[in-house]
Structures are given as structure tokens and as C-alpha cells.
Amino acid sequence: MTLWGKSRDELHKRIYSQKPIRSWEGQPAHMYGEVIHSSLVSLYNRYTQETSEHFLVLFSFHLLILSLDHTQQDFIYGGVLPLSGLNVQTVSLDPDMSLSSPHVFEISGPMVDSKVFICDSAAALHTWVQQIEDRRHEATAQPMSPSHCSLSYLLPCDMRWKREELLKYLVKAPIWQWEGSPVQHMGQPEYISVVNVIDSHRQGCQERLMVLFPQDVLLLSVDNNRVNMTYEGRLPRHSIRAVERSALPGRLQFELMGELVEPLQVSCLCLDDYQNWMFHLQQPDRSSHVTVSPAPPPILPKLHRSRKESQEPMISADQCHINGRS
């Protein structure tokens, strides 16, 4: 296969090189590891029934989608999808459509809009489906190494660009043991930081990712290798408030309190995080206000688990729920 007069290996070197791909987001391409397979395919739009040429690149745990600018002989970033959250299958297009290629496969997932790709031969179709399936099973069955995972690259989120990329990553990455409505139905995430949490039972300090959504505060744990996120609970913003405990350097603490929530002591790692959380969550005492009909009970954080247990990586997708789907 050649593209713009370049071999597949030359194209791989170009993707790996320091020259940024147009509209690129997130960690550098070389952080995704070795290229397993790549080729030209056509992306089919079910609504317009049009096709556009793309270059697909399969890494050990991710699928990179690149569109093409033939005029400039340049790649344009189209997204990176984690294989652990994907399903792949061969499909047939409707016979009354203008395009009737038999070499078609579809990728889909809880956090991914369905995408239909057209290959130029049966052999190319078989290779893509088999390679994605093989890598997907491996990605699900064993933990990724940190060098293959965006999460390890973005934590700690101590820079603004890391925080912004982590919010993007959050809504498309697998979240283990998810409960309730899918994360994409929670609205646009507004803020995220690493905090330390102590529950009312004082079972030790537990590191958490705390994420602010329009209606909820989401709590996630991250395994020791920084490759897997696990759901730990969500708190409805309308029923909690932050009460200041200490704003001293090294003790940036507040307490989350509510009628239906066990008090949680939260320690921030920096003053900016502390000020942001206090600004968003510090609400006046509403106990003297007119009583309204009670809201449904929140899904309480699963803080009874030990730190060690909460940080163990999940190794089997069929043993847990991911992002609201089995």
C-alpha cells in the first residue's frame, strides 16, 4: 500500500514524528505504542450516504482515525478510540443504497457513535475485523501498561491543558462498575481534580478523581498503574454543600454535607482546586426554607471499600458494568 508516494512504514514514521498532525488532541502518537495494522478505508455516512477516505491505524489498545487532505498531502486528526470499549462486526448496507460494497464493518460502543468503514477487498475486511477483535479481547483481559494509556499521561492533572484533556477522556473512556445513567447523559463536565476523601467511618484516606457535572458530583477511583477508572458514586449537587474546615497550606479541607449523604471530608492538593470546589459547592443553609417534595435518594459513594480494594484494576469486562452498559 502506498499513499502520496509513501510506503506504509514511511507513513507510520510520519505519524510518530514530532511534526504535529493537524487538529491533533491529547498525548503524542508514540505514546500509544507499536502500530499493529493500518490501511486506507472509506468512512460511510448513513445519513448523507456519502463516503470519505480515511487512514485507520491500530495500536495495541487504541484505534486512531485520520482523515486525508490530498491537496496538502496531510493527515487530519479524527479521534482515538480505546479498544476495550468497542464492538466490531461485519455489516451489509441496504441494497437500495447507491453503494453496495460487500466489504463493510462497523465499530460501536457505549461512548462511541457508530462508524461504518468500507474496505477494498474481502481480505482487507477480514484483517481489520480479526485484528480489532484480537486486540479488543487482549485489552479487556489484561491491564494496559501505563505507556499505552492516556490516563497515566494526564495524571496528575496539575496543568490546565491536562485538566481539559482529562475531561474529554472521561466521557469516552471505559469506567468500571458503573451504576445509573450513562456518563454521557450527565451533561458537560465542568471541573475535575484529584482529591483525598475520608468518610464518616474514618476508614483511611482514599484518593479519588472528583468531577463536577451540572447536576452531580462524580467520584472515581484510579488503579495504581493509572490505567483504569472505577465508579465510586455520585452526589446530587442540589442536596449537598461544602463546609470549610481548613484553608491552611497543606490542609486544604472541606466537608461535603447533606441530609441524604454521609459527611465526606475532602482534602485538595492545591489552593486552586480548593477555591474552585468551594466556589461551586458552598451553598447557604437551606434548612429554614420552605419544605419541598423530597428528591429521589442519591446513589451514595461506595466508600466502605478499602483503598487497596478500590485500586485493584479490573481484568474482565463480563464481571462488571462499563459506563452504564453490561
Automatic annotation (TrEMBL):
InterPro entries: PH_domain
Chain coiled-coil ranges: none
GO MF terms, alphabetically ordered: guanyl-nucleotide exchange factor activity
One GO CC term on file: lamellipodium
Gene Ontology terms describing biological process: lamellipodium assembly
Stretches the record annotates as Disordered: 303-326
Superkingdom, taxonomy of origin: Eukaryota
Residue ranges occupied by any PH domain in the UniProt entry: 35-139
PANTHER family, per the entry: PH DOMAIN-CONTAINING PROTEIN, RHO-TYPE GUANINE NUCLEOTIDE EXCHANGE FACTOR, ISOFORM F
Protein name, per record: PH domain-containing protein
Lineage: Eukaryota, Metazoa, Chordata, Craniata, Vertebrata
